From TrEMBL:
One GO CC annotation: cytoplasm
Cofactor field: Mn(2+)
Binding site for Mn(2+) 1: 97, 128, 227, 229
Similarity comment text for this entry: Belongs to the arginase family.
Pfam families: Arginase (PF00491)
InterPro entries membership: Arginase (IPR014033), Ureohydrolase (IPR006035), Ureohydrolase_dom_sf (IPR023696), Ureohydrolase_Mn_BS (IPR020855)
Gene from which the chain derives: rocF
Biological processes annotated in GO: arginine metabolic process; urea cycle
Catalysed transformations (reactions): L-arginine + H2O = urea + L-ornithine
Cofactor stoichiometry and binding remark: Binds 2 manganese ions per subunit.
Keyword field: Arginine metabolism, Hydrolase, Manganese, Metal-binding
Protein name per its UniProtKB record: Arginase
Native source species: Ahniella affigens
Tagged with keyword Hydrolase: yes
Length: 303
């Protein structure tokens, strides 16, 4: 049994709204440690990483808070890399989704070192493939996938040992329904594998997930980057960037259960939970419920 290591990263440094910095504590208050232990998991919670305060400044050259974003991502990279090196399953408690850059760069370097295939499931309402040239806001939480694929400033594309950290074919994006115009052109050029909500509506969530997971094998490290705004805001209001039309509760549960069925998930991000927009920690409790399903809790009576 893997030991799960929780890594808190309490920052909204890459976001456009304050509040994601409170996400790690909201997940703890919602009982994430107890829920995973109730699933029979061994869990260690090392508390929170530290990093610079959010200066809340306007963009410079198309990036908001670039030095601080780099510092937070280096801290995440080091913590995730250390956890993997100690045979721990890292669960990053965000924080905003810019932190996926440091987390996935660490996972990618670990996989290269150990000769493992890497597959990333990016559960999100947004493609997060902006650059400083096309971003409408300069917020780096809209850029991590582009940076991981080598498109961005050296400070971000070279967080890990390799640039680019990943190839576009290593990532599957699920639930996408908000893509900026310039971003749309770029993801088509890069041939990013996107299962947007229209596609999911047309073929169903089960078939979409079967396609997304079709090339897993025994040598695959599966990383799940779970942005809480993946969920429909009707069930998950506690995010800074709500986009209507996302997966409902049962669809989200099926996504998580199908991932659990692969028995390949070896690292996880939970990001963009924003208690400032939530209702009595409702979204955090839902996130914990879904994370339990990622670790094997089934809503069906299965042996």
């Amino acid at each position: 049994m893997s030991m799960i290591r929780l890594i808190g990263a309490p920052t909204d440094i890459g976001a456009g709204h304050r509040g994601a910095s409170m996400g790690p504590e909201a997940l703890r208050v919602a009982g994430i440690v107890e829920a995973l232990r109730d699933r029979g998991m061994a869990v260690e919670d090392l508390g929170n990483l530290s990093g610079p305060m959010n200066p809340w400044k306007p963009p410079v050259n198309g990036y908001r808070h670039l030095p601080q974003v780099v510092e937070w991502n280096r801290a995440v990279y080091n913590a995730v890399r250390e956890a993997l090196g100690e045979a721990r399953l890292p669960v990053l408690l965000g924080g905003d989704h810019c932190l996926g850059l440091g987390s996935i760069a660490a996972v990618a370097d670990h996989c290269r070192l150990h000769g493992k295939k890497l597959l990333i499931l990016w559960l999100d309402a947004h493609a997060d493939f902006n650059t400083n040239q096309i971003t409408p806001s300069g917020n780096v939480h809209g850029m991590p996938v582009a940076c991981l694929c080598g498109i961005g400033p050296p400070e971000l594309t070279q967080i890990g040992d390799h640039c680019p950290a990943i190839q576009p074919e290593q990532i599957r994006q699920i639930g996408i329904r908000s893509v900026d115009a310039g971003e749309k052109r770029l993801v088509h050029e890069m041939k990013l594998d996107i299962y947007d909500m229209r596609y999911i509506d047309e073929i169903g969530i089960k078939r979409a997930m079967e396609e997304a997971l079709s090339d897993l094998d025994d040598n695959t490290h599966l990383h799940v980057s779970f942005d809480v705004d993946f969920l429909d805001p009707e069930i998950a209001p506690g995010v800074g960037t709500t986009v209507p039309g996302g997966p409902n509760y049962r669809e989200a549960q099926l996504v998580m259960e199908m991932i659990a069925d692969t028995n390949r998930m070896a690292s996880l991000d939970i990001v963009e939970l924003n208690p400032a927009y939530d209702d009595h920690n409702r979204t955090a409790r839902l996130a914990v419920d879904l994370v339990e399903s990622l670790f094997g809790k089934s809503t069906l009576m299965r042996l």
